[in-house]
């Protein structure tokens, strides 16, 4: 159940959204540009074969990069203009708008708090072009296109999974493999007590498993196919998670920059 604190923040945030903002246009431009870029690259490839295998290391590197950005930029305030803005938008807005008491949106207008701005896709496109050009020069043109395609596809995957985490419960998000896993994983991340450290992946919890920043204690395959199961949640985190769902605790011990933890809670999270 949504607390009064969260309800007030949501009302204030929605009131500040520009009247010119259109959620459908936001999504259409983002997916349209991304899919068009993937199609163009695929159409330029010349009988690709083994080069598609390059998608595997690019995917794994991207998964670790996703984790690192979430851990060290989105949840760590770096006083540099662009990086500070990412932190403000994520920790001070997204994590106040959504908590594990209520992680869902009700209107298309709320896409503003779920999807990244269009400029993120532009930055990714520039980075993908740079890395793709390097791969093309070192290996061959097909390799360069595979690198670019994989990076853009991962970004669209990220945005799609993130939306699935914030829509109302339905058959698709509850039963489709990987989607149900990341929905539970991300909902747990939105607990105000553990949000600064746990469940930093937003596509597949590979890096969270590797870096021991998952709220679960189980193997890699168990993480990937966990679904909605709470059976393996770490025992030391359960009291913290339960405590910070309480509205009274949130009023006293949650700031825009995260929770105020006791020494005992910090010790539990260091295990």
List keywords for this structure.
single chain; 271 residues; mainly alpha; two-stranded antiparallel ribbon; 14 helices; 63% helix; 1% strand
Any overview of this molecule?
The chain is 63% helix and 1% strand. A hairpin with a 2-residue loop joins strand 1 (254-255) and strand 2 (258-259). It has 271 residues and is an all-alpha fold. The chain contains 14 helices and two strands; from the N terminus they run αααααααααααααββα. The model has no long low-confidence stretch (mean pLDDT 95). It has one domain. It is globular. Helix 3 packs across helix 7 (141-166) and helix 6 (118-138) packs antiparallel against helix 7 (141-166). The protein has a two-stranded antiparallel ribbon.
Strand proportion: under 5%
Average pLDDT level? 95
Largest sheet: 2 strands, antiparallel
Please provide the ordered H/E string of secondary-structure elements. Answer: HHHHHHHHHHHHHEEH
**Total of domains:** 1
> How many β-strand runs?
2
Radius of gyration: 19 Å
Unreliable stretches (pLDDT < 50, length at least 5) are none
What would you call the shape? globular
Q: Give the helix tally.
A: 14
Structural class: mainly alpha
Distance between the termini: 30 Å
For the biggest β-sheet, the strand order reads 1-2
Helical content band: 55-70%
């Amino acid at each position: 159940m949504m607390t009064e604190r969260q309800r007030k923040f949501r009302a204030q945030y929605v009131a500040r959204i520009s009247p010119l903002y259109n959620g459908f246009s936001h999504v259409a431009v983002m997916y349209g540009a991304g899919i068009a870029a993937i199609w163009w690259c695929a159409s330029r490839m010349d009988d690709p074969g083994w080069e598609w295998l390059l998608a595997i290391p690019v995917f794994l590197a991207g998964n670790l990069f996703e984790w690192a950005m979430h851990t060290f930029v989105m949840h760590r305030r770096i006083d540099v203009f662009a990086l500070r803005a990412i932190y403000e938008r994520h920790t001070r807005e997204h994590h106040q708008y959504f908590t594990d008491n209520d992680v869902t949106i009700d209107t298309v207008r709320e896409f503003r708090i779920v999807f990244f701005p269009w400029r993120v896709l532009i930055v990714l496109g520039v980075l993908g072009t740079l890395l793709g050009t390097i791969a093309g020069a070192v290996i061959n043109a097909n390799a360069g296109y595979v690198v670019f395609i994989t990076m853009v596809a991962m970004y669209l995957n990220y945005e799609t999974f993130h939306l699935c985490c914030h829509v109302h419960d339905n058959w698709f998000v509850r039963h489709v493999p990987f989607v149900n896993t990341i929905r539970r994983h991300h909902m747990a991340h939105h607990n105000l007590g553990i949000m600064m450290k746990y469940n930093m992946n937003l596509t597949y919890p590979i890096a969270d498993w590797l870096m021991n920043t998952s709220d679960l204690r189980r193997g890699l395959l168990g993480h990937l196919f966990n679904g909605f199961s709470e059976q393996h949640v770490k025992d030391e985190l359960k009291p913290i998670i339960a405590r910070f769902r309480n509205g009274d605790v949130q009023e006293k011990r949650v700031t825009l920059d995260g929770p105020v933890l006791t020494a005992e809670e910090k010790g539990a999270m260091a295990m």
